[in-house]
Amino acid sequence: MDKVNWGIIGCGDVTEIKSGPAFNKVKNSSLIAVMRRDGEKAKDYAQRHNVPKWYDNAGELINDPDINAIYVATPPSSHEEYTLAAISAGKPVYVEKPMSVDALSAWRMASVAKEKNIKLVVAHYRRGQQLFNKVRQLIHEKAIGETRFAHSAIYKKAVTDTEMANPSRAWRVDKEIAGGGLFNDLSPHQLDLMYYFFGEPVKASGFAVNQSNQYPAEDIVAGNIVFKSGVLFNGIWCFNVAPELEKDHCEIVGDKGKIEFSFFEQKPILLTIGGKTESLVFEPLQHVQQPMIENVVNYFLDKGPNPCSGEEGVRIMELIDAFNLNKPINT
Predict the structure, then answer these.
(1) DSSP letter string over 268-312?
(2) Fewer CB under 10 Å: which end of the chain, C or N?
């Protein structure tokens, strides 16, 4: 393989700006075809994004001889099915986060990829962004001294009745499709970055509650992680606060200072040492997944390491399960 020719399974909202256009902007990469069960929507996407082919059947896209790599961007309940189908066809896979509906499903995906010797990457794409790599650099260079703990707070207003009536939004709080509620949708970003920053977790536990009973999935989750390094993490995700109380904040505290940043909002990193705070500003990305996709392409072309392996994806799903389902992680 000297060029990655992509096929996308599931050309929904996430592919419109965050990822889809980037496949044609990365060197040695082209988007060849897209698939959606609604053929008219697949055709519309292909026409709007100048994609040569479109399908309403995943098997036909996977077996298209012009395609040599698959991006699975469907809701989590079908990630395993499509990933294993692509692996069986001998094609490497870039699969959206969360990797699947639970850790067991994710483990099956990673195990088959390893057994078949087919490359698999999980789309924890913040690993590719300069802002979060700067946070990681500051931690590893001990800019704040020895890291003691990290705290993450994600507060969101309740889902509206209009959103619940929209299938393209409502699936995120359907356990059968998403594996859980909005926690499963958003927490992979926070939990993967903690893993990326601090390394192997050794203990994790949490609690999940449905407070508002607006939908069957839990709408508030809290949890803790102990990392092998000794760093402690605690986080809370609440999806039923008043709009004016929405929050997106992470604080990493060391014995000489602290780092503060947001996961979703375009805010600078705040580095506080000795009572003085410095702002580190980064330009927003047009396509937030583009740096990660570039790393994936290099990996598929044997020009770089795996930016987020299937095994790492399984670890994040174990943390999600530990928080949301009160399942202990394997140590």
Answers:
(1) -EEEEETTEEEEE--PPPSSTTHHHHHHHHHHHTTSS--SSBHHH
(2) C
Mean pLDDT of 198-208: 96
Token pair, residue 145, equals 């001294």
Residue-wise pLDDT for 96-122, tens only, equals: 999 999 999 999 999 999 999 999 999
CATH for 130-283?
3.30.360.10
Cβ atoms 144, 325 nearer than 8 A: no
pLDDT at 40 over 70: yes
Residue 325 pLDDT: 67
Q: Cβ–Cβ contacts within 10 Å for residue 145, how many?
A: 13
> For the chain, what is the largest distance between any 2 Cα atoms, rounded to a whole number of angstroms?
60
Two domains, one topology: 4-125+290-308 and 130-283: no
pTM for the structure as a whole: 0.95
The fold for domain 4-125+290-308 equals Rossmann fold (3.40.50)
Q: What is the dihedral of CA 59, 71, 262, 214, to 10 degrees?
A: 0
How far separated are the first and last CA of the chain, in Å rounded?
38
